[in-house]
């Protein structure tokens, strides 16, 4: 039986991941149009005609933005989060301190960090949390049921300008824990002023088995290769 990954919205505003499909029929129709109507120009060598490329594009699921948001780069200074974080914040002249585990992140007051607070049984919570190194944790509002022994690989989309998505791997344990809170989250890094729309693709997630992470490389020596080919 095929492995199943179940996506569940935890909030009304959440947009669960979905498969991306390549329009191969349109590409075939274009190729036929050129062939039947033009003497020289052809459209046979399009990427949609390449099976490896198509499989690569359709692998996994796309993640979508659940809101309209205007990002700007977020400079962050990591401070001592235990002794006197308020004094540390004053020392670097930053208006906000965000506690993340044992550190505090000092940032300037930025509207998009606060505009998308959402309703939870505990009250209003932030969709975006400063994460360090210019990144924020983006809480997406959906949960995933991933079989034990599998992982989700988070990958960026090349066409997303002004917003980096660092490559990362989420274990089934981490994904389950996220599902008990406000759903799966990914890290994003705004690199320029950019506007992201609700429903716009943000990243891609691909299911990995534990064997993929444990695979080891083996190199043949030239002598072994010659022997094998004899």
What do these coordinates show?
- With 230 residues, the chain is of the alpha+beta class.
- The chain has helices at residues 24-37, 51-58, 85-91, 111-115, 172-179, 210-214, 222-229; strands at residues 6-9, 61-64, 69-71, 77-80, 96-100, 103-107, 117-120, 123-126, 128-132, 135-139, 142-145, 150-156, 163-164, 168-171, 185-190, 194-196, 201-209.
- It has seven helices and 17 strands.
- A four-stranded antiparallel sheet has the order 2-17-12-14. Strands 9-10-15-13 form a four-stranded antiparallel sheet.
- A hairpin with a 2-residue loop joins strand 5 and strand 6 (103-107).
- The two termini are 41 Å apart.
- The model has no long low-confidence stretch (mean pLDDT 89).
Which descriptors would you attach to this protein?
single chain, 230 residues, alpha+beta, four-stranded antiparallel β-sheet, 17 strands
The main sheet comes to:
4 strands, antiparallel
Number of strands: 17
- Any idea what the radius of gyration is? 23 Å
Shape: globular
Query: What's the average pLDDT?
Result: 89
SSE class? alpha+beta
User: What is the end-to-end distance?
Assistant: 41 Å
Uncertain residue ranges? none
- Percent strand: 25-35%
Helix content: 10-25%
* Total helical segments: 7
Biggest sheet: strand arrangement: 2-17-12-14
- Give the SSE string: EHHEEEHEEHEEEEEEEEHEEEHH
């Amino acid at each position: 039986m095929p492995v199943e990954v179940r996506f569940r919205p935890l909030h009304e505003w959440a947009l669960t991941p979905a498969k991306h499909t390549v329009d191969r029929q349109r590409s075939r129709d274009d190729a036929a149009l050129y062939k039947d109507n033009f003497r020289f120009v052809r459209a046979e060598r399009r990427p949609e005609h390449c099976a490896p490329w198509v499989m690569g594009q359709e692998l996994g699921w796309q993640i979508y933005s659940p809101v309209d948001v205007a990002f700007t780069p977020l400079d962050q200074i990591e401070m001592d989060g235990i002794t006197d974080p308020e004094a540390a914040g004053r020392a670097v002249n930053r208006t906000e301190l965000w506690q993340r585990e044992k550190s505090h992140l000092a940032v300037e007051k930025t509207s998009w960090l606060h505009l998308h607070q959402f309703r939870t049984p505990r009250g209003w919570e932030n969709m975006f949390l400063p994460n360090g190194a210019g990144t924020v944790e983006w809480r997406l509002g959906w949960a995933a049921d991933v079989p034990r022994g599998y992982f989700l690989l988070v990958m960026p989309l090349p066409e997303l300008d002004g917003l980096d998505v660092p490559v990362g791997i989420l274990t089934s344990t981490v994904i389950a824990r996220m599902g008990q809170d406000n759903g799966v989250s990914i890290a994003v890094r705004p690199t320029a002023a950019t506007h992201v729309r609700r429903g716009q693709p943000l990243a891609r997630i691909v299911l990995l088995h534990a064997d993929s992470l444990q695979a080891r490389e083996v190199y043949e020596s030239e002598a072994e290769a010659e022997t094998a080919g004899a």
